[in-house]
Write a structure and sequence with these properties.
six-stranded antiparallel beta sheet; 10 helices; 23% strand
């Protein structure tokens, strides 16, 4: 190592990386018609169950207040945990009580254009959409929508100059159009961050706004032009803010009465959800039958999907069945779902190995399919990572320490959702996929910032299904992007430095 090298933190961006050992030929893609039908089924089951779940969650909130007033704080904490689990089920989905804001009813200004269900074209300042005489009940609302922001292919175009460079964030404004004095209170400026890829949409929430009259005129505009970016916005809606006000009850309230009320609400919710699930499954099976009749070539895949749905309907999935449905429908039914875990106070072992706390118990976790550099020079894994990143051994250790510090800071105080393999490592460690709200798979974050290497399982691993193969393919693409980026990220930047910089 030469002493004049810059400190490693000057070239490391906050994120993570993975070790790609050997890519295999991807399997044939699933027929588009089958994918579309399955997605419609999942949206239907989630939509039909969400209103019931929201009503149940409010009943739990009332019971929590009553139990706390009676002095049973442990029971109140249990009810609170259940409420948070129910809310986590619908993270990133639209509220069932939200009021849609159709683009067909909006007046577009500037360069903004409606392309199907999406609002695109943000080349000039002041572009946007305006909903005139929009009718809704007075109250407090959040604006919610889904956004994707990527770089435009400007090479060789009129935008390929230093004046038109892709931005990492776009600034927008949403406000009520009025001449009354309260107009400033209903004006919100916010940013939309650059997306991980061209297909990933992130749910954005803006507000709250207090709308005191109806009809109302609402305006959504960009505060600058973004000719070197492609920004796609869709699914605009106004979600009402539900006030939870429960009057305190005397401490003498019998806990037995509270338990009976909670049990009754649980029974009603279970029955209603079972009915909704059966209805949606029947409709989905009917759609599959029609699809089989119209597309005989898809018969084997449709028969397999039909058997899977029938097994799903027949199995007992617990009090609500929602978690089993969503996990199975996503193709990850071989994993155990852990919701609302937290990073333990202890320092992570490395960027990809750390302890979580869930329901009062600690568990050591290993991130699936990625490998962060070790933090000790004597670790035998140093040589492997040095060969992978093509950097010196001492740089591997520096990257390992940076990855550990990044994981500790990035995951601290965030709600963690993990999908874990049921079989443990020899030392009891659980291998898991880790997801964060509004971020997605944490392994992607590490890989995209050059702090880990992708570790592809052996080609003969029979445990992997189509969804897992798709996640692995995304990880490998992230690593390749981090390696080719200019300037490169994380360990790839140290590789460029040691070889005299990237080739022109």
């Amino acid at each position: 190592m030469m002493n004049h090298r810059l400190p490693f933190w000057t070239v490391i961006l906050p994120a993570c990386a993975c070790l790609g050992l050997h890519a295999q030929t991807p399997p044939a893609p699933e027929p588009a018609a089958l994918t579309t039908t399955r997605a419609a089924f999942l949206r239907q089951i989630m939509a039909e169950s969400q209103l019931l779940t929201e009503q149940y969650e409010r009943a739990l909130a009332k019971s929590e207040t009553e139990v706390a007033a009676a002095g049973d704080y442990e029971e109140a904490r249990t009810i609170r945990l259940r409420r948070e689990q129910l809310k986590a089920l619908y993270t990133g989905t639209a509220s069932s009580l939200a009021t849609p804001m159709p683009l067909a009813q909006a007046r577009l200004t500037g360069s903004a254009q409606a392309s199907g269900e999406m609002l695109v074209g943000w080349r000039s300042n002041g572009s946007g959409a305006e909903w005139l005489n929009f009718r809704l009940l007075p109250g407090r609302y959040h604006l919610e929508f889904e956004a994707n922001m990527s770089d435009a292919p400007v090479a060789g175009s009129i935008y390929a100059s230093s004046k038109f460079q892709p931005q990492q964030a776009a600034v927008f404004e949403f406000n009520e159009v009025t001449l009354l004095g309260a107009s400033a209170e209903n004006r919100r400026a916010f940013e939309i961050a650059r997306s991980a890829d061209e297909t990933t949409f992130t749910t954005v929430r803006v507000g709250p706004l207090t709308l005191a009259r109806s009809p109302v005129t609402l305006r959504f505009t960009s505060t600058a032009g973004y000719p070197a970016n492609i920004i796609r916005l869709r699914n605009f809606r106004l979600a009402p803010i539900m006030e939870e006000a429960a009057a305190p009850v005397p401490a003498t309230t019998a806990s037995a009465d509270v338990s009976a009320t909670l049990q009754q609400a649980t029974t009603q919710l279970r029955g209603a959800l079972e009915s909704a699930r059966q209805s949606a499954a029947d409709a989905y099976l009917a759609d599959l039958q029609h699809l089989a009749a119209s597309k005989p070539a898809l018969k084997p895949q449709i028969e397999a999907e039909t058997r899977r749905i029938r097994r799903l309907v027949d199995q007992k999935t617990g009090p609500t069945g929602i978690r089993a449905i969503t996990t199975a429908a996503s193709g990850l039914n071989g994993f155990e779902d852990i919701i609302d875990a937290r990073l333990a106070d202890a320092e992570p072992v490395s960027g990809d190995r750390f302890t979580i706390v869930h329901e009062g118990r600690e568990q050591l976790i290993r991130l699936l399919w990625v490998k962060c550099a070790p933090t000790a020079e004597t670790d035998p894994g140093v040589k492997n990572l040095a060969r992978h990143f093509k950097i010196a051994d001492e740089d591997v250790v520096a990257i390992g320490r940076a990855a550990r510090e990044f994981t500790a800071g990035y995951l601290r105080d965030k709600p963690l959702r993990l999908l874990v393999r049921p079989d443990r490592d020899k030392d009891g460690t659980l291998a898991a996929l880790l997801f964060l709200p509004d971020v997605g798979l944490y392994q992607n974050v590490l890989v995209g910032h050059g702090l880990a290497a992708v570790v592809v399982p052996p080609p003969g691993d029979s445990k992997r299904n189509a969804t897992e193969r798709a996640l692995l393919a995304t990880l490998e693409a992230r690593e390749n992007d981090a390696k080719q980026r200019k300037p490169p990220s994380g360990a790839w930047a140290l590789q460029a430095e040691s070889t005299g910089g990237p080739k022109p």
